[in-house]
């Protein structure tokens, strides 16, 4: 297992030092799972302003299709020819077809009856019930659409994370066509071999720089080549399919880790993130895993963190060194 990096230095005459010779370093890192590059920028880290939840709520249009008084009237129902339920429910979570799907099987799972929840309000039970609801949907997909092998449970939390509705919800997909992430990872698996995931965990644990913990079912690491500001990965110890998350001990372990990560994100004065939990049905080489990245804007203009480098060159950038993130997150992990 290699962790490839190239240190770059841009040289210029520095106006902050009387136009003497100067410059700035950056680093290009290659993701050992996908082969894609990420760039670590060694910029001075400025403390982010305290997030203004009230200002965010002022922008809310007021009408919400996911609120209890609207959800059964407005949201679609599943096709009875393919699914056993019109809508799935688990606790307060409700899963129904995405009215604007990305693929042939796209669903939305509303997490709570409450229209707005801060990160600190997102309890482990709320998250667990939402994932369980998604799993019930995916079990039916597997039963009637065996070709839809690329399955994922996803979370865009709040507008900076790409959510167009404040009401907290997950998105779940099952497709016969791989996303670029699956294609990249499967290419690496074919080139590297079946031990890709286990070697990554073992190597990271041995190095200790980005390793968080090896629990009963999952190991947790900070990504060497992050997909965003930073990138937390949970890797299962063995292949399983979504229905295994019906086992309480497996579900509780992944949810407990998710909760620790999002609480850590909030402590950094960031209130948005993206999360994906990846499965590939029938491919025992593809180990289920999760990636979770915070999302923010750059003050003072609230500039989007995604620019041409990510959008068109497909190279994420981070101003936080993964090893430093791991050092901080370890302090609150247990």
In words, what does this structure look like?
The chain has 334 residues and is an alpha+beta fold. It has one domain (51-333): HIT family, subunit A. It contains 8 helices and 16 strands. The chain has helices at 53-58, 68-74, 124-144, 180-192, 196-207, 248-267, 308-311, 322-333; strands spanning 5-14, 20-30, 37-41, 88-90, 93-97, 105-110, 150-157, 169-175, 211-214, 218-222, 232-236, 272-280, 289-295, 297-298, 303-304, 317-318. It has a 10-stranded antiparallel beta sheet with strand order 4-5-6-8-7-12-13-11-10-9, with helices on both faces. Strands 1-2-3-16 form a 4-stranded mixed beta sheet, with no helix packed on it. Strands 14-15 form a two-stranded antiparallel sheet. A hairpin with an 8-residue loop joins strand 12 (272-280) and strand 13. The two termini are 28 Å apart.
Task: Compute the number of structural domains.
Answer: 1
Going across the major beta sheet, what is the strand order?
4-5-6-8-7-12-13-11-10-9
Helix content percent band = 25-40%
Q: Which structural class best describes the helix and strand composition?
A: alpha+beta
Percent range for β-strand residues = 25-35%
Low-confidence stretches: none
How many DSSP helices? 8
CA radius of gyration: 21 Å
Helix and strand arrangement:
Layout: E1 5-14, E2 20-30, E3 37-41, H1 53-58, H2 68-74, E4 88-90, E5 93-97, E6 105-110, H3 124-144, E7 150-157, E8 169-175, H4 180-192, H5 196-207, E9 211-214, E10 218-222, E11 232-236, H6 248-267, E12 272-280, E13 289-295, E14 297-298, E15 303-304, H7 308-311, E16 317-318, H8 322-333
Parallel strand pairs: 3-16
Antiparallel strand pairs: 1-2, 2-3, 4-5, 5-6, 6-8, 7-8, 7-12, 9-10, 10-11, 11-13, 12-13, 14-15
Helix pairs in contact: 3-6
């Amino acid at each position: 297992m290699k962790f490839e990096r190239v240190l770059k230095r841009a040289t210029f005459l520095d106006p902050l030092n009387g136009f003497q010779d100067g410059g700035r370093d950056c680093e290009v890192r290659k993701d050992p799972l996908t082969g894609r590059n990420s760039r670590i920028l060694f910029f001075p880290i400025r403390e982010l302003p305290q997030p203004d939840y009230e200002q965010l709520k002022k922008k809310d249009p007021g009408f919400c299709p996911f609120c209890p008084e609207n959800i059964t009237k407005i949201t679609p129902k599943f096709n009875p020819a393919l699914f056993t339920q019109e809508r799935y429910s688990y606790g307060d979570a409700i899963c129904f077809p995405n009215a604007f799907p990305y693929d042939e099987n796209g669903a939305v799972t509303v997490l709570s009856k409450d229209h707005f929840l801060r990160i600190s309000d997102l309890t482990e039970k709320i998250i667990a019930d939402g994932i369980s609801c998604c799993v019930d949907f995916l079990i039916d997909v597997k039963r009637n659409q065996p070709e839809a092998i690329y399955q994922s449970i996803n979370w865009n939390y709040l507008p900076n994370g790409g959510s167009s509705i404040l009401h907290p919800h997950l998105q779940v997909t099952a497709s016969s066509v791989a996303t670029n992430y699956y294609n990249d990872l499967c290419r690496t698996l074919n080139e590297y071999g079946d031990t890709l995931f286990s070697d990554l965990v073992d190597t990271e644990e041995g190095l200790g720089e980005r390793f968080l913990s090896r629990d009963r079912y999952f190991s947790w690491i900070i990504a060497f080549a992050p997909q965003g500001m930073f990138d937390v990965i949970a890797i299962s110890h063995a292949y399983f399919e979504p229905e295994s998350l019906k086992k309480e001990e497996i579900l509780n372990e992944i949810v407990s880790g998710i909760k620790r990560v999002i609480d850590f994100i909030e402590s950094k004065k960031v209130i948005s993130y993206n999360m994906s939990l990846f499965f590939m049905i029938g491919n025992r080489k593809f180990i289920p895993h999760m990636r979770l990245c915070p999302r923010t804007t750059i003050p003072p203009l609230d500039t989007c963190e995604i620019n041409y480098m990510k959008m068109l060159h497909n190279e994420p950038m981070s101003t936080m060194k993964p090893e430093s993130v791991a050092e901080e997150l370890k302090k609150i992990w247990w």
